[in-house]
Amino acid sequence: MIKVLVTDDEPLIRAGIRMILTSADDIDVVAEAANGREAIELARAQRVDVVLLDIQMPVMDGLTALAELRRVAPDARVLILTTFGEQQNVLRALADGSAGFLLKDSAPAELMRAVRAAAAGDAYLSPGATRHVVDSLASGQSVRRAEQARRRLETLSDRELEVLALLGEGLSNADAGQRIHMSEATVKTYVSRILAKLGCENRVQAALLARDAGLGT
To answer: Are both 125 and 151 inside the same structural domain?
Structure first.
């Protein structure tokens, strides 16, 4: 079972997340916290695999709690709950070691998918906001970095470059497959191959590399 700690200052949001996650056979919400300080205490007291952490909370906000959670529960993966208006906070959270972020208005299936991905050690960025984050991170890149990125992409086939360009747009495997008439499983295979060739740990790093190289623009 994937043990989850849900942290949000709004009881209705916590209740909704609990209801969604506990409907899955492999996920169990073992604790709830109303602020970052409570989350740290709960994570210290019991083993959790994934912490869902809101950013804007009283007493202690999510960004402040993130660093301490990484210290007291280093094996727990932290997913940030966010909205479109908090992108600058998302960038800081990624730099501070979060496993990714999830928009609060995400569909139930995406919430479960994000928790499972985080528990498996993968980074997860909500497809609906990945493009915005990628653009923010890549906006000031130098010509030299763009040239380095293009050289790294020389190892990819034309089809792999096509799939990578869709990653750069923030598309999920399913959406990318629909765009290029390919099954989701086949896209997943291509993504794994692309990550291995480029030496990227996850699809977010690959998407950033695609944007650095100007792929698809």
So the answer is: no
Distances (CA, A) of 69 to 62, 101, 142: 10, 16, 35
Domain range for residue 163? 143-213
Least Cα distance to 206 among 147, 156, 140 occurs for 156
Residue 97 confidence (pLDDT): 83
Q: Kindly report, residue by residue over 66-96, the tens digit of the pLDDT.
A: 989 999 999 999 999 887 555 567 667 777 7
Burial class (CB in 10 A: 0-12, 13-18, 19+), 90: buried
Residues 157 and 120 both lie in one domain? no
* Dihedral pair phi/psi, residue 77, rounded to 5°: -100, 135
As for how many domains the chain has, the answer is 2
- Structure tokens that stand for 167 in this block: 């990653």
Evaluated on CA atoms 26, 75, 127, 13, the torsion sign reads: positive
